[in-house]
Amino acid sequence: MKPNFLDRLKSGTWKLFLIALPFTSFPLLARLAGGTSVAPLSAVFLLVLFFVSYLPELFRSRSVPRQALPLLLFMLSALLSSALAVFIPFDSFRGVPVWTNALEGFVTILLGIAFYLVSIHMVVDEVWFRKTLRWVYVGGIITIAASLVQSAFWFALGKYPEVLKQLQALISSSGLLYKARVTGVAFEPSWLANQLNTLYLPLWIGFSVKGFSAFRRKLFGVLSVENILMCLGFLVLFLSFSRIGWLTTLAMIAFLVFRTANKLMNRWLERRAQHRGTITSPWKHFFAKLGLWLSLVLAFSLIILLLGVFLSRVDPRMEDLFDVERYREFGILGWASQLSFAERLIYWITAFRVFLSRPILGVGLGGSGFFFTRMTPEFGYGLPEVIEYLFRDNVIPNAKNLWVRLLAETGIVGFSLFCVWLSTHFFAARNLEKSANFLESTFGLVGKLFVIAILMEGFSMDSFGLPYLWFALALIVSVSRIRAKTTERESEPSCI
Questions:
Q1: Are 204 and 229 in contact (CB under 8 A)?
Q2: Strand, helix or coil at 178?
Q3: Which of 467, 475, 477 has its CA nearest to residue 43?
Q4: Facing residues of 25 across strands?
Q5: What confidence score (pLDDT) does residue 321 get?
Q6: Is 419 among the domain residues?
């Protein structure tokens, strides 16, 4: 049957949505939104899909995925926190009304939920899932290509040509290219690392480990598209020089190594017991596993140490990483200030102090920044970036850490609901991995990597408006729903 206009519109818009995912600070949208740095281009196509496809379906079915229920409760909790914040005596800051900041925070949550629900709605079967993966890869290829071009110009010329700067200004509201660090099509290098780690790399790593590919052909009959993109993704991540980005990827690799080592150890113990005709005692099993874990922890500790030595040689921010004397004299914050990291710690500590002042429901969305001048640790006033941030920049301060922001602005109630929602995806991924279907079991591993990456990257980003988190988790739900439909069809009695 020839697709009608509506089907073609949905299909074309979905493809554009997927390609546009890496463009998260589009200048035109940023200006329309009042100068915000978070302005995803994919939101334009999201709105079309929401009104043309998702909303009519919602009216027909009058239901949402059960995995979304904790998220909706979180949204209501955040709304309640913001409503009750009218009884909190906020400090005046830049003359900005508290309610405008709360409204902006609530809008970004609504945008994130829309990303989540529409993505679940669009991926309805395995055919659509494979098509979705291919167009996601296109966005990833654009990111990689832009990053490699930037890197090539920098290492060849020692500077960026004017045309490259003008191009960056067209696709990113910052319009900045960073010295010796690639940015791709993102706002800054850390945003590039964030999009790689929370969406693209988990896909390419998980599929490469399992041997799955969204395409049939392989380069030289050996290398899949995912293998190639994974290697290029690692290279671009390295060139971003994002420290939290490197740690996030290392956490995903550590998870894969630990699970593989655990399986090999179990297999070896079983074969050993069969060969001897005995049963391995619980104590021997425990000490064998303990020795394995300690060896792996030691190995990864050594890797982190070597990574630190390497960084201290190539990254000016990390030159004093091993300056023990400064740590002894000035403490953790003094040591971190030499690594250009103390500022982040100050923001985290300040936001956590805001949480301690209102631990149950927090101070409402966007409200934590109004307390920063009052609750910033004394050490922070000796850091130029903090002074600039608190007294000169025309923005409301934020925690720059999703987990501390959740605690400060939604309290333990909102934080718990958000964590429950996130954990349901890890358990869904674990169930998928048990499936006999190769695609489903493969994506179970990818889903676990998604959750690990989101947990780690949450220590660097605090915005609800970036699409990767929502889209990645939506894919887990979509594959789970595809599996449920397949199981339901298979369990139906055949008609004779």
A1: yes
A2: strand
A3: 467
A4: 39
A5: 58
A6: yes
Asked if residue 464 has pLDDT above 50, the reply is yes
Using CA atoms, how far apart are residues 26 and 28, in angstroms rounded to an integer? 6
pLDDT in tens, 242-293: 888 988 999 999 999 888 888 887 777 777 777 776 666 676 767 777 787 7
Max Cα-Cα span within the chain: 83
Burial class (CB in 10 A: 0-12, 13-18, 19+), 323: middle
Task: Determine contact, residues 468/197, Cβ cutoff 8 Å.
Answer: no
Average pLDDT (52-66) is 88
Residue with tokens 């190995």: 299
Q: How many structural domains does the chain have?
A: 1
- The residue assigned the tokens 């309640």 is 80
Task: Give the span between the Cα atoms of 447 and 137, in whole angstroms.
Answer: 17
Above 90 in pLDDT, residue 233?
yes
The pTM (predicted TM-score) of the whole model is 0.90
Which range marks the domain in which residue 75 is found?
A: 5-241+397-487
Q: How many Cβ atoms sit within 10 Å of the Cβ of residue 457?
A: 26
Domain-located, residue 155: yes
In a domain, 451, yes or no: yes
Contact 37, 173 (CB under 8 A): yes
Mean pLDDT of the chain: 86
Backbone dihedral angles phi then psi of residue 181, each to the nearest 5 degrees: -135, 130
- Cβ burial of 494 (10 Å; 0-12, 13-18, 19+) is exposed
Cα–Cα separations (whole angstroms), residue 268 to 221, 298, 311: 32, 22, 38
Report residue 327's pLDDT band, with 50, 70 and 90 as the boundaries: low
User: And the tokens for 186?
Assistant: 């993102």
Does residue 321 lie in a domain region?
A: no
